[in-house]
Design brief:
It is a single chain. By secondary structure, this protein is mostly helical. It has a domain at 46-92. The protein has three helices and two strands, in the order H-E-E-H-H. It has a two-stranded antiparallel sheet. Strand 1 and strand 2 form a beta hairpin.
Length: 92
Amino acid sequence: MRRGVLPALAVTTAVVSVLLLGVQWSARGQGAVTKDEVGDEVQIVPRGRLPIFAGETDTGALYRFATTRGEVLRHMPCTCGCAAIGHTSNRS
């Protein structure tokens, strides 16, 4: 009988952890981090907030720069290779 208690406890703990994480994201107005079709991380957040993954290294500073200095990015050519679909600058 004791054997069945440990797996049930582990499952319950995992479910509660996932639910608490979801509540935390909802409370902050942020959705879960997902990956798009090319593998990039995507997260929808309220204006003025940064995605969770943008808090690492210089990424947060770059996000803030992009939101406040978009005109500068318009004059910086992009090298992503998407010019054929209209991506001509780091702003577009």
